[in-house]
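>> Question from a student workshop board

For tomorrow's exercise we were told to take the sequence and the ligand below, predict the bound structure, and bring the output to class. My setup keeps failing. Could a helper post the expected result so I can at least see what it should look like? The ligand is adenosine-5'-triphosphate.
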Amino acid sequence: MSEPVVDIRSLHVRFGEVEAVAGIDVQAYAGQATALLGRNGAGKSTTMRVLAGLIPPTAGTVVVDGLDMRKDTLAIKRISGYCPDVGGLIPRATPWEHLQLSARLRRLEDWEDRARDLLERFELGDVAHRITGGFSHGMGRRLSVVLASLHQPKLLLLDEPFDGVDPIGVDATMDVVADARARGACILISTHLRELAIQACTDVLVLRGGSRVASVESAEMAGEEGARAYRALLD
Ligand SMILES: Nc1ncnc2c1ncn2[C@@H]1O[C@H](COP(=O)(O)OP(=O)(O)OP(=O)(O)O)[C@@H](O)[C@H]1O
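>> Workshop helper replied:
Here is what the output should look like for this input. Compare the format with yours to find the bug.
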């Protein structure tokens, strides 16, 4: 198999007394979508934030596309797109202004058609020039996925992209993931929604209490049997 795009070894993240991540390994590859599944507090978002370069590992190594997170955080951010689980939007700016800012910071060229297409797909075209301060939760989630994917990143990190999102938004997110896989990106999706995770992803990692308790192909988590297997891992 080729080198992993994401190679996490023995990752520990501690916040004071709380060990949010307790020594997990994650390998994820180009053209693959991997779900991080687990209950509230399992350590999914913390792992995603480490990969997004927002919080440093307490211990362990995090390598993305051959770059070491401790030394090459900026270079990793350049090749990544991150949809945070909460926040990330500027209330007084419109979706189009968010896209313009992102394009300028990343020095993108010829991004406008792609941006319009993404906004249409996520049914945000009509509100492209309305400030996001008045957006519903689901509209904010959809815009966050658009912003994460605009620059066609090598690593796409989607934290709870389906949370509170209607079926149109879910389908559009599935399409973004499929397109990213087709162009050889590596995708990680954090969610507690098993059914959507296995629909979107090829592989599943189950976290519990900051530890990895399973690493399986999505098919093994499908159907009633998969639901039972998943529940058993959570209890
Ligand atoms: N900044 C922080 N300060 C203190 N504790 C934190 C911080 N961030 C996370 N934690 C703790 O770390 C643990 C893991 O949290 P994390 O947000 O990674 O879980 P999660 O699996 O994403 O949960 P959810 O599904 O609820 O989003 C929890 O016990 C949480 O309270």
